[in-house]
Task: inverse folding
């Protein structure tokens, strides 16, 4: 089972989103615990990030395969999240 660590700025961003969307995003994030590579979890071309798509939102992760840890480092609408 993978450990999920959500960065403080992601938590802050999610706190400002509508409740239904926030719940949907958090559910999708925590579903990655069993096997993240079975879902819509793909590498971001040209970077070391992986992304999870939830509707129009994207959550970017760094992965540590050796320790089985996923770090959620950015979250936001599709157009904004890739700008950093």
Result:
């Amino acid at each position: 089972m993978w450990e999920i660590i959500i960065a403080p700025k992601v938590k802050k961003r999610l706190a400002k989103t509508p409740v239904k969307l926030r719940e949907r995003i958090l559910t999708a994030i925590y579903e990655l615990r069993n096997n993240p590579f079975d879902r819509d979890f793909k590498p971001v071309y040209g970077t070391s990030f992986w992304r999870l798509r939830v509707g129009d939102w994207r959550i970017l992760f760094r992965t540590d395969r050796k320790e089985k840890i996923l770090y959620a480092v950015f979250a936001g609408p599709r157009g904004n999240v890739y700008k950093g």
